[in-house]
Amino acid sequence: MFNQVKNTKVYEQIVEQIKSMVEDEILKKGDKLPSERVMAEDLGVSRASVREALRALEVVGLIESKQGAGNYIKEDFGGLISEPLSIMFMLQGSDPIDIFELREVIELETVVLAARKITDTQLEGIKDILNELKENFDEDQNVILDKKFHYMIAEASGNKLIIDVLEVLSQLIDNFIKDSRKNILADTSNKEELDKLHDKLYDAIKNRDESKAHYIMKEHFSLIKRYIS
Amino acid sequence: MFNQVKNTKVYEQIVEQIKSMVEDEILKKGDKLPSERVMAEDLGVSRASVREALRALEVVGLIESKQGAGNYIKEDFGGLISEPLSIMFMLQGSDPIDIFELREVIELETVVLAARKITDTQLEGIKDILNELKENFDEDQNVILDKKFHYMIAEASGNKLIIDVLEVLSQLIDNFIKDSRKNILADTSNKEELDKLHDKLYDAIKNRDESKAHYIMKEHFSLIKRYIS
């Protein structure tokens, strides 16, 4: 299965080989990797090197090691790379506003895609969330519903990558805007304005009016920005 | 410097502690980490565990190990996470079109930010590239110049995160659209149309006309999409 490796940066080559096997579809989601002993033999390296490579892939979120059962290619990549990304943002001294801006950039066009591609079932799902949002005055609940609303728009874009990236950005930004989000929703006049914007957004998507959807999403972000900058 | 760790997933806790130190600005870009021996002693774990954690951080691209000199927090995160991201895309069975679409999504709004924030020096830089592009008929050169043009627009957005993310997406997509990009630029009528669109884009940015810039970028992507889908 594996080939012998030569150089000093052994673990990099192991990662490289695993990558090739994924590329060639020898390894797929959920697959079990050979045991560390077998990999070490196949690769002609120490078990310590194999373990280094596996731990690295685990940190990155590509494999998971199940107690006593071995190592598996992950089924689900949710939360993947959000850890290293968040360390990077801190090291870069990234301004939370930059992260927020990237989220805005993506959401402005995601809603355009949603208006183009949304299905009737997805429209109903969004309508249900909006009704819940209007009837609910529990702040914590509203934060969750509000997030779900945006998630469902991303889902309607039909682009898995966009959904994942927005998820990661949301997680990162959550630490920064948690309080402001609560402040926005706690203010009754804001909540009313947001409910109105959400309704308009829903109508624009439903009517497949792409430029209207874009415009309303922009207004939506303007409202939020008044609170976070 | 470090605290003793308890649990089984030792390397995760080490990564966690390094993350905390970055958060608290005890560790900064370019800083040298303590030796593996010292870290193992501070943490009360084996050197093998420390090495696992360090290799993981290296794969993620957060630290680099310099031969004989020890481990350093990276100065530059270029190319960071593009490796794990590309493995993930393959495992997800991500459609290249999805990656392309996310790039379009980001570029459509990045040019809006550029129109809002660009400096005179940056405008001159873009003008120079466009002149080179028009005078040049070497395909390989044009591919590089064309990329540079888009990179400079991203730079003008003033958002480091957007620049990084577009870079990663570009790299990933390069493998997929390399040939189509050449095909587009090899066709003289396309090259003329692209030159015209680039000029219009430049004018819109220069005139701080955000919606025009957005509109032209959309046309620009329509032209490319005719070749890749």
From TrEMBL, chains A, B:
A GO term, aspect molecular function: DNA binding
Annotated SUPFAM superfamilies: GntR ligand-binding domain-like, Winged helix' DNA-binding domain
InterPro entries: GntR_C, TF_FadR/GntR_C, Tscrpt_reg_HTH_GntR, WH-like_DNA-bd_sf, WH_DNA-bd_sf
Alphabetically ordered keywords of this record: DNA-binding, Transcription, Transcription regulation
Domain HTH gntR-type: 8-76
CDD domains the UniProt entry points to: WHTH_GntR
Domain of life: Bacteria
Stated name of the protein: FadR family transcriptional regulator
